[in-house]
């Protein structure tokens, strides 16, 4: 009987065991269904536990070591001497993820794009280990940037040097160049920078300011002599413009700093301007009305600095200025969720803002420059707001997002001009940044063959918005204005960048919306209905005038050389 009952006993035990497992499974299922958040947390913990069990001894050792590596303290004001240990790769697209030592790299090797981790540095004085240049899998630097941990010591000390630059401007008696230490009536003026290609635009903008908008503000024209010499008599149209200006107050200022090239010329000009209160204008940026009123607006009087937004913001950016950008760690400041800045126009009281302008100068001219090396910003455009933000100095950012002016061809729209507004949301600036004025091609009369066939080489006369032929070398590009609805949230403000072939040239970059009625958050208006609809005709005429003056000077110089 004992042998007969043994299988039955085993069957009972198996039944009890199966019942216990089913009961445990039911309890677990009940927990999942009744407490979802707890279940999610449990699931995460289980996943981590399984991952931990699968990790190799080398990975576990790297995890243990990572616990000894700290974040550098914020707010440091003294430089520290660091030694680079190497790149430390991590999992989960987070610099705080589990270590992946098999993907580590020495300090001299470039870190691949899309790899999360950090640079491990050691303080040579204290021996402490720090996590620096912490990266996620997101594009935290420009795609063209080559990132190596070898530069990490300079990276982490950069904000200390920036602090020192700002502190110098806070010392008693510090003033910017051409700012008098004694109180006097502020001098307001417009600052522009020119190089050969932009002479027709500069000429046209100044002529519009003087003859169409009747603006009497004095104007500084900044230039680099070495650049202007590259094109024969390139600056001559502006000299003639100044000589014939009945209002006066237009002066030429030379940029003599060898580092002040390209975008840095703007910072140099503002920093060294003779005006106390500056309206900076890119040379291809024209106001639709006299901008003198800006100096009396409440926004400027309250803050002394007015900036304008760009097309891009953290939810839709082509410059990687999101929360994951290395920019914020570089500057030792928290992420700021706001529109990026467009610097085609800037309104600054230099007397009130010596410290941020000094910091801006440091950002621009410090070498080696991490903004440039890591492609953290595009040119100068965001450096202004960053200098003000870093020092917690108030400024006013215009709240209306940029509109886009462009041309409709069939059903395609190609935006070629950024449109900025005043504080009330009214159109104020038309920045022709994607399709410059040329004033016509300048030809070398010394080439006899070219001179003989000049008539045949003349470009076809472009069509204006009515389809009529005009005598202007530059075609009309402003037929419609595409604006963002005030009722729509910022997340819906998404400016597309595209080529609208075959309606437009393959070389023409377009901004806005390819099809005007495709996005309900934007609306279009015909330029003909605007109060400033005739402005482009003036610009095209003045640009042609600049081209003719330049050609006449080139011809005269060639004739003098031939007969001399």
TrEMBL record:
Main localization of the protein described in the UniProt heading: membrane
Origin organism lineage: Eukaryota, Sar, Stramenopiles, Oomycota, Peronosporomycetes
Keywords: Golgi apparatus, Membrane, Signal-anchor, Transferase, Transmembrane, Transmembrane helix
Superkingdom, taxonomy of origin: Eukaryota
GO cellular component term, pick one: Golgi membrane
Gene Ontology MF term list: alpha-1,2-mannosyltransferase activity
Membrane association type: Single-pass membrane protein; Single-pass type II membrane protein
Protein name, as recorded: Nucleotide-diphospho-sugar transferase
Segments forming a coiled coil: none
Residues that span the membrane, as ranges: 12-33
